[in-house]
Design a protein that fits this description.
The structure is a homodimer. The first copy, chain A, is an alpha/beta fold. Chain A is built from 24 helices and 22 strands. Chain A has a 6-stranded parallel sheet with strand order 12-9-13-14-16-15, with helices on both faces. A 5-stranded parallel sheet of chain A has the order 1-2-3-5-4, with helices on both faces. In chain A, strands 18-20-19-21-22 form a 5-stranded mixed sheet, sandwiched between helices. In chain A, strand 6 and strand 7 form a beta hairpin. In chain A, helix 16 (about 500-510) crosses helix 17 and helix 18 packs across helix 22. The longest helix of chain A has 27 residues, at about 185-210. The model of chain A has no long low-confidence stretch (mean pLDDT about 95). At the A-B interface, helix 6, helix 7, helix 13, helix 14 and helix 20 of A face helix 6, helix 7, helix 13, helix 14 and helix 20 of B. Chains A, B: InterPro entries: THDP-binding (IPR029061), Transketo_C/PFOR_II (IPR009014), Xul5P/Fru6P_PKetolase (IPR005593), Xul5P/Fru6P_PKetolase_C (IPR018969), Xul5P/Fru6P_PKetolase_CS (IPR019790), Xul5P/Fru6P_PKetolase_N (IPR018970). Chains A, B: This is Phosphoketolase.
């Protein structure tokens, strides 16, 4: 990683010369060695890891812990002071850097990108970020594309492009490449210094112009292309084969230092070639000449924003001010995400420089339009008549790349600000691997007390599996919540608010939280409302509760429990409860709704888990028919150790998807009201003798509804106009 | 989708003029209407969907089924004859087109890319594909980038680039854009015809040059940029607002035709503007003039390769010829993937134009080197000294983008050929969403008898969670198998071969299979070998079996079962069995190994599931300690309805990952031999009284091993040199 060491040293020189605040993002794989060393030389590594002192013993520990059991990984990770980037999986450095620059007008984010990483899909798209940075209200990003020529074994695509091709590709996407190339250290140093000074002057010029209202709104931004040999300054030949400048210098150029005395001797020669005796004093401390190369203030490794310091909580409106009113539960329709839009609009007004919204061009489709009453969609490019609410500093960032939405938001959060990513449920899988890495970052970062918890990563997952009526199977996949719940329980949260008022309270909670990945699943279609503001607040705080007003077990023990999680399953469960009242008025049915899925975990598996006693209070000893938004096995996985689990029957999405009506989707997957009611009857021996008649009736009604859908393309009037008529007192 | 209709018509004209074999990939979202119509006009739609005849009633049905319950989705999907592309999730059209072109020298793949799709990460990276296509042995790809200016609500980035910028960006990545731009239909037609003819001539020229050994090895390839207004030829104004050329024409330009008589009138005017009376006869059949616009032969919608026809099975070597020999189980080391490499090399020799290997630059890292004895890494760019085994027509495609590896392989499979994608386990999540879409394609395609099953999508998942010793937590995630098993059981398969010989048999099976997503998880590190070729064959055919040679239950019923799935869990389980022999010689232990995870499903949940009787034969009634490669809940999810499930205790990865030794990883997650042995003892009442002594002993030994790892950076000699010594007869 000689290129990273070189870069870091020159950035430090520039900081000292100009007083520019900087932050460093390290993209290349296995590059942490260089950054461990650089931050150790600055003293910040020892400050954050007191066991790694700035002396001989500390230096030994620094070397030893690298990629060593109980030590630190070989890529950027939370152990590195000043780092905001989990670099284990390649591709996200430039997106993180861009996210960090939003709303940080005084910041310059230097971002080293490996030429291996540059081949990834996410990085390929990330060059577009230049177009989204405001010249005045945002900071700047300085990409440093490091062409060392090879990945593990193959050459890299970008390193073998001609200079003209690379120039063309980058400048077309808003960057002005400036080149530092060579293998002679002294020449490269001089060149790097000149180029970096010029780049920073250009960045300053763009800002100065913008402040005076001059210059193009979307100027080309400077970037550096650094072309040095892979394994530069390392062993030239090993066992007679060329190493420097080839793929053989990847990771470990001398593989047999333990067994092969020649390799050991080469290693010693190599390390001595840096003349350590001139760099360190006898105690192993950097000599003054070296120590003076680092800024006293503004050290990149001590940038407060990178450790979550100075992160300001949001000032949030009251959910009560946005709540949907109704005369009785289950009688009025509202679009949950549209209601949330009003709340988010007011939140934005209160937090104009601290909150951003990201979406793959679905902000309006997801019915968060109200936000656009007080801001625009960020757009700095050419505009034409017919464009809708574009604005150069809009707070809604839309780009048809889930990777960019996620990567930008992560960078924004990792530097202490707040945000929301709204996206279609099925396509949330596009960022599966990114959320793994972010969750791992959150979990690992919590081990370092000098890192303050950062604002949570908040997903609004909508256009969900039950209401992709027109798109069909490809748009129907509720598995993102399974994926997130496979991550550490300290970090992962999944909420399924049943209606708009619950969505408000859940989102209020999520926006106030820190250090979490919050997945909120909510529909955007008109749906019945059940809880007023007060009831919603209490229900969401509890995370799950029996809806006594919906059940018929008020004066006697429940004979069967209808449980539900998710807006559509809640609707079908209530309809099933109403059917049961109609058909078997003497049956004691309890309705339970779950908002916070993690409540179902045993407490030793998840911090939100409730005890078995509380669980039994809610679910009773009666059999449970559970209508679930997602794959049924997620509930089994969570609750398999619970009392009565053998009598819990989960109905959920079983990958039976197609282009069809909302009710038909439910029927295909067995979460429709008729199937749920029949399932409940089957579980109660006392009424089982009446089953045949009712089951036949319920089946006939389900089949008629499905036939109607296929014939007319819509659900039956009785299903569309269905209202809860089971009682309105709580 | 007037742009798609235009494109299709011109491609047909070109086919008729030149006799060029073509295939069409439709990228833009909600674009299926155009392709439904085009293939209906050609007659192939009616051929494949006899209920949609080429007459008035058929036309009505064609319109009605579009995005309608029980009908077809609004994007390209398996119902479309000639299509190989599931277009529900945007981003993969160009990668699919590239994959289809490999080894199809006579084929031209025309690929329409929406400017929304062009913003996705996967598509951004896909332009690199040009560099991987051989001029002679591969076919050609003709991208048609359709700039209609808007996504759902925002403008698109590429449409607002200047012509110079777009030119620069595309040509830098190996494409020569040719422009068709305008709003006047007649002019655009003429221009499209000229440009398409020129593009095809250029494609022919590149091939002719190559066949004569002329021209650059990596020429710029022609592509078309088609810029027409969004909603072109549709209503210009609706309710006084401009629609044509703006985002308002997305999907449904006239939203209220049912309620609003003005909208209805506008709809009628619009549709009549195409003068249907001149296009169709009284019976609703296309008039001759229209029918003659389509080629008689070589219809894109009847391309046999797109329906899996003419797909040739692989000729495969015998696993026996590659098997690892040993004197007794558990005494010899081998690297499973290296052994597989030899088998794959021989497979490649037998199938030189029908089999490709894809990897994000990890082919050698994953120890499949042997393949490179008979081919090279595909590389058509500039070459320099130090490059390792590059070749312009190499059969190993390495690019550091999992998206491209997956997308190219999908395109190759969807046109009937075979391939393997080898990748690091943790980073397989990068393609989570792509495998969802491919699995959905396979499942939906199976509904159409005119689609033959295509070769399976085979993953070799290696560098797995238990052996990312140096990289740590970011590289440790076994959740890809959970994800794949959430897809339809008809399609999804997960195999965990315990050793090299089993890996050979599993892979042999996978390469012979069709219509599946096969995930094979296997380590690349030296590991003990257990089954000879014959035993491996039988074991893999069964999918799971009791390893009688490893157990102590030969002459009496098992008191406890040690089950395992995965190579490292198998090693720890056998070590635990040996410990139990040593400590409690009178205990009857059975060892069960599971290769095919789906065998554990009940038969009504997965076609591979075994019956409860067979399950009980194997697992007995004794308690089960199950050491599992992945997250423990996956086993619970699969087996929760099995007899004895309450007494099954699964030990697996619980997201306790870090940079540490192999044994330490096992210990941190409770799948190490000592923990397993102690857990087994706990379950057997007869020996429970001896538990305290043994448990204390086992705990002490585990802790000592962990301390050693932290001190010396390696596992203890006793763990490293561990061999199975429990018996060698079967």
């Amino acid at each position: 990683m000689p290129g990273v060491t070189l870069t870091y040293a020159h950035l430090n020189r520039a900081i000292m010369r100009t007083g520019q605040e900087m932050l460093f993002v390290l993209g290349p794989g296995h590059g942490a060695a260089a950054l461990n060393a650089a931050t150790w030389l600055e003293g910040t590594y020892s400050m954050r890891h007191p066991e790694v002192r700035q002396d001989l013993a500390g230096m030994r520990e620094l070397f030893r812990q690298f990629s060593f059991p109980g030590g630190v990984p070989s890529h950027a990770s939370p152990h590195l002071p000043g780092s905001i980037h989990e670099g284990g999986e390649l591709g996200y450095s430039l997106a993180h850097a861009t996210g960090a620059a939003f709303d940080n007008p005084n910041l310059l984010v230097a971002c080293t990108i490996g030429d291996g990483e540059a081949e990834t899909a996410a990085l390929s798209a990330s060059w577009h970020g230049s177009l989204f940075l405001d010249r005045v209200t945002d900071g700047s990003v300085l990409p440093i594309l490091h062409l060392n020529g090879y990945k593990i074994a193959s050459p890299t695509l970008l390193a073998r492009m001609s200079r003209e091709e690379l120039d063309a590709m980058l400048s077309a996407q808003g960057w002005e490449p400036m080149y530092v190339e060579g293998a002679d250290a002294a020449e490269v140093h001089e060149c790097f210094a000149d180029v970096l000074d010029a780049a920073m002057e250009r960045i300053r010029g763009i800002r100065d112009d913008a402040e005076c209202g001059l210059g193009p709104r979307d100027p080309c931004r400077p970037m550096i292309v650094l072309a040095t040999p892979k394994g530069w300054t390392g062993p030239m030949l090993v066992d007679g084969e060329r190493v420097e400048g080839t793929f053989r210098s990847h990771q470990v150029p001398l593989p047999e230092v333990r067994e092969n005395p020649e390799h050991l001797a080469q290693l010693e020669d190599w390390l001595r070639s840096y003349r350590p005796e001139e760099l360190f004093d006898d105690a192993g401390r950097p000599v003054d000449r070296i120590a003076r190369l680092h800024p006293e203030h503004l050290r990149m490794s001590a940038n407060r924003a990178t450790h979550g310091h100075d992160s300001v909580d949001l000032r949030l409106p009251s959910p009560a001010d946005h709540s949907v009113g109704f005369a009785a539960p289950g009688t009025e329709l509202a679009e949950a995400t549209r209601v949330l839009g009003g709340y988010l609009r007011d939140a934005l007004v209160e937090n104009p420089r601290n909150l951003l919204f990201f979406s793959p061009d679905e902000h309006t489709s997801n019915r968060l339009d109200a936000v656009l009453e007080v801001t625009g969609r960020r757009w700095r490019g050419r505009r034409i008549a017919g464009d809708d609410r574009l604005s150069p500093d809009g707070r809604v960032l839309e780009v048809l790349s889930e990777h960019l939405c996620q990567g930008w938001l992560e960078g924004y959060l990792l530097t202490g600000r707040h945000g929301v990513f709204s996206t279609y449920e099925a396509f949330a899988h596009i960022v599966d691997s990114m959320v793994v890495q972010h969750a791992k970052w959150l979990h690992m970062a919590a081990e370092y007390p000098w890192r303050e918890p950062i604002p949570s990563l908040n997903y609004l997952i909508t256009s969900h599996v039950w209401r992709k009526d027109h798109n069909g199977a490809s748009h129907q996949d509720p598995g993102f919540i399974d994926h997130v719940l496979s991550k550490r329980p300290e970090v992962s949260r999944v909420y399924l608010p049943p209606d708009a008022n619950c969505l408000l309270h859940v989102f209020d909670h999520c926006l106030r939280s820190r250090g979490r990945v919050n997945v909120v699943v909510a529909g955007k279609q008109p749906a019945l409302q059940y809880l007023d503001d007060d009831a919603a607040r209490v229900h969401c705080e509890r995370g799950l509760s029996a809806w006594r007003w919906a059940g018929s077990d008020t004066d006697r023990p429940a004979e069967v429990v209808l449980a539900c999680a998710g807006d559509v399953p809640t609707q079908e469960t209530l309809a099933a409860a109403m059917l049961l009242r109609e058909l078997v008025p003497d049956l004691a049915v309890r309705v339970v709704n779950v908002v916070d899925l993690a409540r179902l975990f045993p407490p030793d598996r998840h911090p939100h888990g409730i005890g078995d006693d509380e669980y039994r209070d809610i679910f009773t000893d009666a059999p449970v028919i559970f209508a679930f938004h997602g794959y049924p096995w997620l509930i089994h996985r969570i609750a398999y150790r619970r009392p009565g689990h053998d009598a819990m029957h989960v109905h959920g999405f079983t990958d039976n998807g197609t282009t069809t009506t909302p009710f038909s989707m439910c029927a295909m997957n067995g979460i429709d009201r008729f199937t749920l009611a029949a399932a409940a009857l089957t579980e109660v021996p006392r009424v089982r003798d009446r089953l045949e008649r009712f089951t036949a009736d319920l089946t006939a009604r389900r089949e008629a509804a499905e036939a109607y859908a296929r014939r007319y393309g819509i659900d039956t009037p009785e299903i569309i106009d269905w209202r809860w008529g089971g009682g309105d007192s709580r």
